[in-house]
Design a protein that fits this description.
6-stranded mixed beta sheet, 18 helices, Rossmann fold, 22 strands, globular, alpha/beta
Length: 506
Amino acid sequence: MSATPLLETVGLSRTFPGVRALDRVDFRLFPGEIHTLMGQNGAGKSTLINVLTGVHEPEAGEIRLAGRSVRFSTPQEAEAAGIQTLYQEVNLCPNLSVAENIFAGRQPRKRGLIDWKTIHRRAAEALAQLNLSLDVTQSLDTYPIAMQQMVAIARAVSVDARILILDEPTSSLDEGEVARLFEVLRKLKASGIAILFVTHFLEQTYAISDRITVMRNGEREGEYLAADLPVQTLVAKMVGLQNAGERLTQAEAPRHDEAAASTQEPYLAAQGVARRGVLNPLDLEVQPGQILGLAGLLGSGRTETARLLFGADKADAGAVRIDGKTVKLSSPRDAVKHGMAYCPEDRKKEGIVADLSIRENIVLALQAQLGWWRMISRARQRELANQYIAQLGIKARDAEQPIGLLSGGNQQKVLLARWLATEPRLLILDEPTRGIDVAAKFEIMDRVRALCAKGLGILFISSEISEVVRVSDRIAVLRDRRKVAELAGASRSEHEVYNLIAGDRR
């Protein structure tokens, strides 16, 4: 490996309204290496890539390419300099052929006309460099996502890319497809191409990486040789634990299990529930009056589990039983009919309707449950809204205030109220305290525990492991799209959860 970085940043900074996305970040990428960028959601990974590739311009700092200071104003300028980026969603034209995608915008011509014979031959040659043989005349959308990723890589190689950036390229691939992608990446690495790889999967990180840079809260936490960075230490650095080695290996004093295991029939039991390329077969049980926490890093399968159980995504394997009877959850409507409710992770996009009032947001789910031909009277709407404003301590002028004007914590309470109005038996909470202040976090979770004490079953998801441990009766630990353990009683401790996430099975 060269001693001189091919791509380097020095003191790179970038802010957005209210957020310092990058704070004096130093980064190095060498030719002939695979360098993985790791960090939790909001760590700054995507912003760094966007600055490197001309999507955003830096506010401070310097980008050096082959030792020369550069600044890209557009992605096209970065591509012209030899930087190719492949995103999680393949950025090609599915209705065009494989060959057309590889040579889009630079088709060879003969006597003023497109030379299709040459295009097809050169496209096949570009794929052959990656040990791939495809019918290049076939439409791209006739091939699976894994092959579309390979076509995107072939396009990058055919334009003599010096740097290849892959942003979550394996999120929709199964294990066999990932293995094939990694074979291609190792071949490109051997040819001298520098590869920047972004993933949330720990096993993939150690399977492919030469070097790892860890980011946290917009800052570079550190740069490490993969061989010198134990997985437990990597996890600790990503989440910000101090005294990482001690915190992850020392045993803690046993703690009292405040919620004894329930002996009654579980409300919901999932057996072997899975979706190809999204979640491996998983078993879960949610008891009435208990909180089951889902713990894991971003990309471990937490939200995917919630969406499959709620019917927002369709499982292609396994079965779900409610009250001991197998049910089919083909849509959220089916889930709601069976007494389920779901507060999604992204409350701005998938939760609140910002232009509607608090009252209108609260009654949405109940009205949908009743059907639009059985309209809830305005008086009943006001009664429900005022009831939950008081019960959940929603701070607002009145029920007619637009929800978009509330703080994040109060918006989250309105979403809780929306689903509580349907009188659910199971409440799925995906990151219910993200982006709200500490006081609001404790207030919301205390109210959730009070509801649980009345018999409501809760599936609780949070990236803050300490919060999961604090509120949960049992904890299912996920890693790389599969459940690796379930903890209860004295084993329900923060250090044990981190060890399991890191792959320590002791």
